[in-house]
Amino acid sequence: MPVPILRHVCHEGRYTPRGPGLYACRSCGNRATTAAFPVQSDERLVVLAGVLQVLAVPDGHQMITPTRRCHAPHLGAGLALALRLSRTQPVYRRPEDIATAENLLAVLDVDDQGPWVFSPEQLDVLTRAMDVRSARLPSTARQHPDFDAAIRAAHTRSRPPHSH
Questions:
Q1: Are 56 and 42 in contact (CB under 8 A)?
Q2: Residue 106 contacts by C-beta under 8 Å, 6 or more apart in sequence?
Q3: In sequence order, what are the residues at sequence separation of 6 or more whose Cβ sits closer than 8 angstroms to the Cβ of residue 28?
Q4: pTM for the structure as a whole
Q5: Whose CA is closest to 70, among 152, 136, 148, 155?
Q6: Average pLDDT of the chain?
Q7: Whether residue 11 has pLDDT greater than 60
């Protein structure tokens, strides 16, 4: 759950990104760098509804952020569509995968804006659902290739290295 950052100068915390690691308050113009905000190693700064917030990203989890070039609910709806399609296909054999898919669907129904923090298990289930979506609805899968690629890259990063 994101937590808004309120500053002593800018009580509303309405900072907007001005560049890599640079934010500016929409009310007073006060500028601040990422270093000015107290975030731990398992936290990330995100801007939600124009308010700078801290989002916890537990170890092994990956944060997926919608790109600015696309309306975020479309991305969330695309992921939800993939998960709904997997209900009609034999995608998951293990009960825990089915439960994870249903949990993810509930998360996306509540928050279609992102950013989202997914566990390795959730990313595995999500990428398999995206594979089904790609096979069943190829035009839908091609709508946001950068976003799909970001999820697949996060899935790859979340997997533990295999020892040979």
A1: yes
A2: none
A3: 9, 10
A4: 0.69
A5: 148
A6: 78
A7: no
